[in-house]
Amino acid sequence: MTTPASSMTAIRSPIDPVRAIEVAGAAMVEDTLRRILVVDDETTIRLALSRFLRTRGFEVEAADSGSAALEAIERQRFALMLCDLRMPGMTGLEVVPQALQRDADLGIIMLTAVNDASSATEALNSGAFDYLTKPVELPDLQAAVERAMLRRMRTMERRAVDRLIREEVALRTVQLEREKGALRELTVSVAETLINAMEAKDLYLRGHSQRVAELGAAIAAELGESDHVVELVHTAGRLHDVGKIGIRESVLNKNGPLTADEFSHVKDHVKIGLEILQPLGHLGDALLFIRDHHEHWNGMGYPHGRSGEDITIGGRVLTAADAFDALTSKRAYRDPMSAAATLDYLHTQAGKLVQPQVYEALRRVVERGDLPTLPQS
Ligand SMILES: [Fe+2]
Q: 147-199 pLDDT, tens per residue?
């Protein structure tokens, strides 16, 4: 079993700096892409812009319409797209979101007429980086392209780091859950040592906690409870009577009816159990289930006299499993009851000792033969 100390050393920092640099580095390598798509329905503008960009060392492809541009983007990756706003067929405003859908890293610069600032603003809102007004001054174009290339690189780096953080958070969450599980398992093992010591004092109790755990978990699953709750019921079942370690042996093993004082002393095992387990806060709701395992559906149980749904679901389930196992186990003063006779008896207790729905779930589990097969001493 993993000890908490060794498992804690396995915790990684939320962001691994080496991986962050690797991913950011990969993003920068990606940005060596210097291919630009020029989209304009006017041939002269297309040719002039393409020629200028080629002299600046870019690889250029030209498209004469929005749909031709989208086809080109599907065919290969571009670092930037210079896109005319007003074109027959698909407008530049319609091209922007579709282009970004195909390549979220694409940098987009719109080309607009002087009097079309509102459309340019709209294009910026839908994801374009920048806009240039026609006629385009070549130095302005060069400056805009450089800004867009830089911004694309920063955006890609940021996305890569965001992705890394998301992956690291997911990984760390899984690790923490695993460590919590290991810690819970360790705690239960230590507490079970107490249980074994206690059950060793009483021949008739041997194996009781384990059987209550398994039967309780089966009832909780039959009721449709989540895997998490089923596991908590199992844990609570294993630990529910740990407080009996604090009960005098003479009372625990008495052959015959208990006096009022003795019964009151036995009842203390719930409180003592919670005191023993209280520091183990990570047992969570399992502690509440243990608190409630002697409460009765009609409010006549102990230690608090809770009733109905004020009793935790785990408490209601454990009451039924505990009663079933106690009645079907041998005691010093009586032989065990059969499963069928025990079900008949507990049927008279539905609505009193146990919740009717919990009784029904217990009956289905028992009748299916899903009983724990642990030996009874
Ligand atoms: Fe108990």
A: 999 999 988 888 888 888 899 889 999 999 898 888 878 877 887 787 777 77
Cα(369) to centroid(ligand 1), Å: 25
Q: What is the DSSP letter of 103?
A: -
Q: Domains of the chain (ranges plus CATH)?
A: 17-167 (3.40.50.2300), 202-368 (1.10.3210.10)
CA of 222 to the centre of ligand 1 (A): 23
φ, ψ of residue 214 to 5 degrees: the values are -70, -40
Q: Calculate how far, in angstroms, residue 294's C-alpha sits from the geometric centre of ligand 1.
A: 6
> Cβ–Cβ contacts within 10 Å for residue 53, how many?
22
Q: CB 236: neighbour CB atoms within 10 A?
A: 33
What is the CA(267)–ligand 1 centre distance, in A?
8
CB contact at 8 A, 56 and 68: no
Measured in Å, residue 209 CA sits from the centre of ligand 1 at 9
pTM: 0.57
What's the gap in Å between 325 CA and the centre of ligand 1? Answer: 12
